[in-house]
């Protein structure tokens, strides 16, 4: 029996063990959704080197660990440490998921505007009147994404956000996924479902943080269904344990004249893979994807994006940067597909990578597939090192080499950080990036 088959059998057995206690287990439609997704995963299996989308990223380290799919009962938490990672000073509504479970005592959802509902996904799945059924699974292609199929099979808890027609969030909603020591050896499959009705507007913040340096597996999915003229801006900060495995997917389908903007920052995890799949399914749609990934030591950070222009007059702009040090490896594969009906499309894509050591590696593959003849499309990628003349110039002005290199590295990364719309998050990211740079604290006075 090979290891791949053993991995399949492990998750199939885990599903049989826990299916009856998953949220909404009595609902026939949900049971069918889960079982169909499991069948897809078992048939497709973990991706291999033969899968073009996984050419540079191996999942064998996840396969060989028999991660349990349901963490142990909620363990006592270090309140002081949790308070630190929650950053309660952020001006935002907050919902907290610890080890895959909603924790109301740490959440703050008072004062939500009229027409906005933010609730634990488990509660929504158990309530037939919640409306989650109309959005769940609508934006996710489980045939193309095996880990999204696995997440769908084990849907249990997470967050459901429903925005009624014309509803506007006055403050961002911060969703904090916390991994504690109890999550060591476990897998969680959190799901965020956002249903934004026409003319609604919201800013969402997703943060993945760890209280301890445990080995665990986060397999997260966020799906966003945008109605006509709706607008959602999503900021995602991944700061998992340095021993953790983080697989995530963001799946979006957009209605007429809607707008979706994503800011994805990947700093943590031993292995991180971020998929983003956007369907511009109606005319006049706008989509902006920004991202920064930093990998040092033996970290591996992989970003795959796919933007499907399906209708005319769509606009998509994509800009990702990577900072790689030590033996860190960064992968970027961005695919834009302009379908035959998508005339008057404007699609631009750019990826830039900075190598700070001789052993760092960047693999970049921007792609355009164009099947329409009246479009404006461009893409490009760069991989390089710090400019020696710029380092020399700063050293000639009195900086030591570490500070000079750190200042130039921060300047490279800041182009993405400055695009984040929430001032408190921008300031937090500035400190997080500086903390990763040798001599980082010494250059704060220059920022």
What does the model show?
By secondary structure, this protein is α/β, with parallel strands linked by helices. The protein has 9 helices and 20 strands. Strand 1 and strand 2 form a beta hairpin. The chain is globular and about 70 Å long. The model has no long low-confidence stretch (mean pLDDT 93).
Q: Could you write a compact summary of the structure shown?
A:
This protein has helices at residues 3-18, 28-44, 60-63, 79-86, 121-125, 146-153, 388-396, 401-417, 423-435, and strands at 93-98, 101-102, 116-120, 158-163, 173-179, 187-188, 191-196, 201-210, 217-226, 231-239, 245-254, 259-266, 271-280, 286-295, 300-309, 315-324, 329-338, 345-355, 361-370, 375-384.
Topology of helices and strands:
Blueprint: H1 3-18, H2 28-44, H3 60-63, H4 79-86, E1 93-98, E2 101-102, E3 116-120, H5 121-125, H6 146-153, E4 158-163, E5 173-179, E6 187-188, E7 191-196, E8 201-210, E9 217-226, E10 231-239, E11 245-254, E12 259-266, E13 271-280, E14 286-295, E15 300-309, E16 315-324, E17 329-338, E18 345-355, E19 361-370, E20 375-384, H7 388-396, H8 401-417, H9 423-435
Parallel strand pairs: 1-5, 4-7, 5-8, 6-9, 7-9, 8-10, 9-11, 10-12, 11-13, 12-14, 13-15, 14-16, 15-17, 16-18, 17-19, 18-20
Antiparallel strand pairs: 1-2, 3-4
Average of pLDDT: 93
Residue windows where pLDDT falls under 50 for at least 5 positions:
none
Helical content (DSSP H or I, runs of 4+): 10-25%
- SS summary, helix count: 9
Give the strand order of the largest sheet, numbering strands 1, 2, ... along the chain.
Answer: 2-1-5-8-10-12-14-16-18-20
Number of domains: 2
Termini separation comes to: 57 Å
Shape, per Cα inertia axes: globular
Q: Which percent range describes the beta-strand content?
A: 35-45%
- Give the structural class: alpha/beta
Radius of gyration: 21 Å
E-strand count: 20
Helix and strand sequence = HHHHEEEHHEEEEEEEEEEEEEEEEEHHH
The major pleated sheet works out as: 10 strands, mixed
């Amino acid at each position: 029996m090979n290891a791949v088959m053993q991995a399949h059998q492990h998750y199939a057995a885990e599903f049989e063990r826990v299916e009856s206690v998953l949220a909404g287990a009595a609902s026939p439609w949900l049971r069918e959704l889960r079982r169909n997704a499991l069948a897809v995963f078992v048939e497709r299996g973990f991706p291999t080197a033969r899968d073009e989308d996984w050419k540079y990223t191996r999942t064998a380290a996840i396969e060989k660990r028999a991660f349990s799919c349901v963490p142990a009962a909620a363990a006592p938490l270090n309140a002081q440490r949790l308070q630190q990672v929650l950053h309660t000073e952020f001006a935002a509504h907050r919902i907290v998921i610890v080890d895959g479970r909603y924790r109301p005592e740490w959440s703050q959802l008072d004062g939500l505007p009229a027409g906005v509902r933010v609730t634990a996904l488990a509660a929504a799945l158990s309530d037939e009147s919640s409306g989650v059924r109309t959005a769940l699974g609508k934006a996710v292609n489980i045939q193309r994404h095996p880990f999204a199929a696995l997440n769908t099979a084990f849907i249990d808890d997470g967050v459901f956000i429903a925005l009624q027609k014309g509803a506007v969030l006055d403050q961002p909603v911060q969703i904090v996924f916390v991994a504690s020591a109890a999550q060591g050896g476990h897998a969680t499959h959190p799901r965020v479902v956002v249903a934004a009705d026409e003319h609604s507007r919201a800013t969402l913040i997703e943060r993945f943080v760890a209280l301890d340096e445990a080995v665990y597996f986060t397999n997260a999915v966020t799906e966003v269904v945008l109605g006509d003229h709706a607008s959602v801006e999503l900021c995602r900060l991944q700061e998992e344990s340095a021993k953790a495995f983080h697989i995530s997917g963001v799946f979006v389908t957009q209605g007429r004249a809607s707008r979706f903007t994503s800011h994805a920052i990947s700093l943590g995890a031993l292995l991180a893979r971020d998929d983003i799949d956007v369907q511009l399914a109606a005319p006049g749609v706008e989509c902006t994807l920004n991202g920064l990934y930093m990998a040092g030591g033996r970290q591996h950070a992989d970003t795959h994006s796919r933007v499907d222009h399906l209708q005319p007059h769509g606009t998509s702009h994509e800009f990702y940067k990577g900072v790689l040090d030590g033996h860190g490896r960064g992968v970027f594969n961005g695919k834009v597909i302009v379908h035959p009906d998508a005339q008057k499309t404007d699609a631009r894509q750019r990826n830039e990578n900075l190598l700070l050591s001789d052993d760092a590696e960047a693999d970049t593959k921007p792609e355009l597939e164009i099947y329409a003849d009246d479009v404006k499309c461009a893409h490009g990628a760069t991989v390089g090192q710090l400019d020696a003349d710029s380092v020399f110039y700063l050293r000639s002005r009195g900086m030591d080499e570490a500070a000079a290199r750190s200042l130039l590295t921060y300047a490279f990364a800041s182009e993405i950080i400055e695009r984040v719309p929430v001032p408190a998050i921008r300031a937090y990211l500035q400190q997080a990036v500086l903390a990763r740079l040798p001599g980082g604290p010494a250059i704060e006075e220059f920022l």
